[in-house]
Design the sequence.
């Protein structure tokens, strides 16, 4: 006689269900979206803070719903989400503004340089080696474009602080990616990979990205004559265009960050008309954004604590001082009141997806170096990814640049 | 409280105030940038003034007292260039037009000044809805009684001035069907409309004392009339115009008012009467709704004709005065515009038909205002 089995009621003609990892991802997505929504409604916090928080909860640190391996599986989604946001950010950057107000470029250089130097100093003071410290400082000088875009969109923010926030963010992302690539290759050059190779790489990054950006911008301009970008077909066309660009970038072994940003800038330079299609990106773009922030939160795991905690605390302080100091120093000259300069400095604090992608790149290039860089970046992203959006949101509300939500 | 004395000013001197829109260059909605802009503008020794207005996406530029059209245009160009340069530093746009075509009035913010907070407390949402943009023209008067004569005389030309300046067909994202929808926002105020029919400063003083006695008004500033006397400047102030889309049109309308004023004061062609005002609101409505094509009813003969024809006839009537003031070429171009049906509202509707969306219309408005047009 056969032993009774719990499965005896299962019809024999059906195959046994195997757990599909995609189901785990789908459930996580639902949970993340819910956390963002609850925080936004109950505590009027930015949704992206909730997404990042949910990521922390789902990640290896708390529940372990996700492991680092699984994160890699959905890397394509993260890249596409970032590419969309960076393209949109580029579209909002009008280079003609810098000609009318060159002090903005000075402010940008000052905040980025101070954030870099102070972070570097703090890391060296706490005993980190030069190579990882330089890479970390290059990552720390950037601002999260994803957070800045989402928080300003959620508030429908407009005004001097908002437009400068977006402009400085676009610039410091570009600095961060280029400087990081340069430093990573220099450190490998120093380790014997060849100096010529080390210097060629950043040049290749800029020139290659510019070339792809020109292609995307040209294609977008042509397609815009045929499609209304705000229509459903238009959105599909833009998604397709950026997916194509990502594929080309992957073939050329170029990071997916710089080219979409440059493409947006080129489109705006050639055609200053308002580009309002992005607000119609709708549900598909929304899913990507939720996934992006979920992953940024999930990068932290317990092995990251220890020295990384202390180092990242030092960078949190140094980087905040650098951004605030740089913006404040040039505030008056660039035509911004002191109160608004403080708000701008604070609004520039978020750090998120781009920082993590760069850290993963360091790990790919040199696992030993990555082991030093990644834990600190994960801690930084946990702090600046969850709290940073709140600071940006409050700063913009304080200077009354939100068109939606509460009055300060 | 009694009315202040009317300080005489040079007859037929002119001055202009223009309320201007501040917009962002991303989606071309209004943007709260008045404080930033005012911090940056430096007029230096250029004449005129740049001031905040009720909500933080408006500014007002005003000329000093000008003797003639040439001086006025020069001052306006100086003001325009100053604010345009500051605007470029802030990456914002400045434009004319009586309304912003798609702003949401609920998103406006009251400027942090005691007077604006007081008005906001008093009028509630009307204060935020008052984010509309007008041109005010002052005409100098040698005495108070002349000023009141001029006030009643000019009130016959309100439809003309509305049709010439009309530049507010769109409100809150929709075509209102009006050429000047801005004036509908002004009518909401309890003390808007026409001034009382009094012909001497003494009678006006008596009226003013009765009104202040009711506690309804505290000063002349509380009257939102279409035309009002401005005793501290010694002027009559015409307030019905939308801010035109170009500075050149604003200057031309001022020249037209100056020539009308000269005609009225020198020739004394009419005998003002309370009954003149029987057709006043009808005429004004026709001008707001239909512009040049509206019906004009003559207050004396009750003859009906299109407003365009009456503007044309008025330009003929005042031709000699225009020549004396040296503005006949300017008024000649204005007459041509009337014959071709060109005004701000028509241009805005054309742009909207061509671009298919309102943000791009505002972008074109900014270019037109900031870069000017050939006179």
Sequence:
């Amino acid at each position: 006689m056969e032993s009774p089995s719990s499965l005896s009621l299962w019809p024999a003609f059906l195959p046994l269900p195997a757990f599909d990892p995609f189901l785990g991802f789908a459930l996580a997505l639902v949970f993340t979206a819910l956390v963002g929504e609850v925080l936004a409604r109950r505590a009027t916090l930015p949704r992206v803070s909730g997404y990042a928080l949910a990521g922390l909860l789902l990640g290896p640190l708390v529940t372990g719903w996700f492991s680092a391996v699984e994160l890699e599986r959905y890397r394509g989604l993260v890249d596409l989400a970032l590419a969309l946001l960076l393209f949109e950010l580029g579209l909002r950057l009008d280079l003609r503004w810098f000609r009318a107000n060159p002090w903005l470029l000075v402010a940008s250089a000052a905040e980025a340089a101070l954030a870099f130097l102070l972070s570097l100093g703090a890391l060296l003071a706490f005993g980190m080696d030069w190579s990882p410290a330089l890479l970390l400082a290059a990552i720390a000088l950037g601002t999260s474009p994803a957070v800045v875009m989402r928080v300003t969109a959620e508030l429908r923010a407009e005004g001097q602080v908002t437009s400068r926030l977006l402009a400085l963010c676009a610039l410091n992302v570009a600095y961060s990616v280029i400087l990081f690539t340069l430093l990573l290759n220099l450190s490998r050059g120093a380790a014997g990979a060849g100096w010529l190779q080390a210097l060629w790489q950043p040049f290749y990054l800029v020139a290659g990205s510019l070339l792809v950006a020109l292609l995307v911008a040209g294609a977008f301009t042509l397609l815009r004559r045929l499609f209304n970008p705000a229509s459903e077909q238009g959105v599909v066309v833009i998604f397709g265009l950026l997916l194509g660009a990502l594929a080309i970038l992957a073939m050329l072994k170029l990071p997916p960050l710089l080219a979409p940003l440059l493409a947006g800038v080129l489109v705006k330079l050639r055609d200053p008309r308002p580009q309002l299609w992005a607000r119609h990106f709708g549900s598909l773009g929304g899913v990507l954004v939720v996934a992006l922030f979920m992953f940024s939160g999930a990068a932290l795991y317990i092995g990251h604590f220890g020295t990384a905690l202390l180092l990242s605390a030092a960078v949190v302080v140094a980087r905040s001082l650098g951004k605030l100091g740089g913006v404040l120093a040039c505030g008056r000259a660039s035509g911004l009141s002191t109160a608004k300069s403080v708000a701008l400095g604070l609004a520039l604090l978020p750090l998120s997806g781009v920082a993590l992608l760069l850290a993963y790149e360091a790990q790919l290039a040199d696992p030993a170096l990555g082991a030093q860089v990644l834990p600190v970046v994960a801690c930084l992203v946990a702090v600046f990814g969850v709290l940073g959006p709140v600071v940006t949101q409050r700063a913009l509300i304080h200077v009354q640049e939100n068109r939606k939500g509460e009055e300060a | 409280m009694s009315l202040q004395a009317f300080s005489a000013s040079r007859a037929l001197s002119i001055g202009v105030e223009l309320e201007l829109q501040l917009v962002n260059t991303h989606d071309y909605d209004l943007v709260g940038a008045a404080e930033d802009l005012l911090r940056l503008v430096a007029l230096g020794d250029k004449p005129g003034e740049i001031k905040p207005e009720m909500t933080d996406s408006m500014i007002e530029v005003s000329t000093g007292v000008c003797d003639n059209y040439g001086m006025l245009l020069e001052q306006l160009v100086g003001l325009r260039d100053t604010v345009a340069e500051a605007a470029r530093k802030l990456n914002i746009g400045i434009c004319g037009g009586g309304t912003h075509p798609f702003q949401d009035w609920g998103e406006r913010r009251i400027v942090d000044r005691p007077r604006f907070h007081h008005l906001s407390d008093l009028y509630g949402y009307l204060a935020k809805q008052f984010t509309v943009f007008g041109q005010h023209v002052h005409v100098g008067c040698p005495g108070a009684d002349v000023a009141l004569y001029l006030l009643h005389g000019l009130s016959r030309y309100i439809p003309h001035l509305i049709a010439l300046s009309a530049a507010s067909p769109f409100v809150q994202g929709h075509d209102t069907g009006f050429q000047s929808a801005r004036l509908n926002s002004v009518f909401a105020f309890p003390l808007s409309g026409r001034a009382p029919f009094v012909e001497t400063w003494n009678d006006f003083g008596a009226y003013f004392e009765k009104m202040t006695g009711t506690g309804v008004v505290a000063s002349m500033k509380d009257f939102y009339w279409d035309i009002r006397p401005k005793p501290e400047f010694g002027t009559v102030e015409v307030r019905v115009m939308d801010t035109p889309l170009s500075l050149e049109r604003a200057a031309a309308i001022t020249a037209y008012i100056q020539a009308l004023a000269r005609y009225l004061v020198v020739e004394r062609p009419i005998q003002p009467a309370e009954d003149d005002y029987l057709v006043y609101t009808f005429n004004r409505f026709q001008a707001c709704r239909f512009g040049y094509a509206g019906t004009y009813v003559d207050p004396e003969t009750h003859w009906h004709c299109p407003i365009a024809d009456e503007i044309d006839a008025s330009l003929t009537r005042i031709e000699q005065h225009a020549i004396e003031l040296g503005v006949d070429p300017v008024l000649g171009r204005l007459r041509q515009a009337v014959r071709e049906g060109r005004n701000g509202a028509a241009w805005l509707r054309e742009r909207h038909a061509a671009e298919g969306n309102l943000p791009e219309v505002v972008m074109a408005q900014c270019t037109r205002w900031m870069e000017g047009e050939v006179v």
